[in-house]
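Quick log. Single chain, no ligands specified.
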Amino acid sequence: MRIRKKKWAQPELDLCPYFVKEPQSFFGRWKEFFKNDNEIQLEVGCGKCSFVAQKALNNPDTNFIAVDIKSDMLGVGRRNIEKLFCDNGKTVHNIALVAFNVENIEKLISKEDNIKQMYINFCNPWPREKHKKRRLTHVTKLNKYRTFLSDDAIINFKTDNDELFEESLDYFKDSNFEITYLTRDLHNSDVSDNILTEHETMFSQQGIKIKHLKAKML
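-> predicted structure:
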């Protein structure tokens, strides 16, 4: 997603207690950042953070690392997180906002961090053949995720894009993941705990069906 430069974003992030200025220093020891032994979950490409904000609010005993390459996007996300928590009379305690390139995600998190759930929501579909390796579900990325995910971890993937979804099914298979749940019409499925993202709302209003899967390592 493109976003205009926001001069206020980085200064606000620098003052935010849950924005991680040197995230690689927590490699293998993210529990030290959260200062507890609660389960850690990960969202890559978190964008404006509407998903992770709601997840963290709903699950106060679970920690969430939210990663996006753009600080301007995370600045907007921080405001969204603060508003949601404030509106519900809560203080943010279980989110880590991280500006980091997912291409190097294996340098940010390790097996010792014991990631139990991972979320990939409405990532860039990169439709051109020469760009497909940039997809967050491509084999090259899935193999990187394997280096740090807990052995029983689940990857949760949502998209509006038919081609990305169908080709991702092959990516998961080729990377030795098992698809444990699949629907090509999420909003008319039996999933009861879905959290709407901004993209999801927009695409649904356009009549586009949302595709969703869960996968685990074999």
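Residues 71-87 form the longest helix (17 residues).
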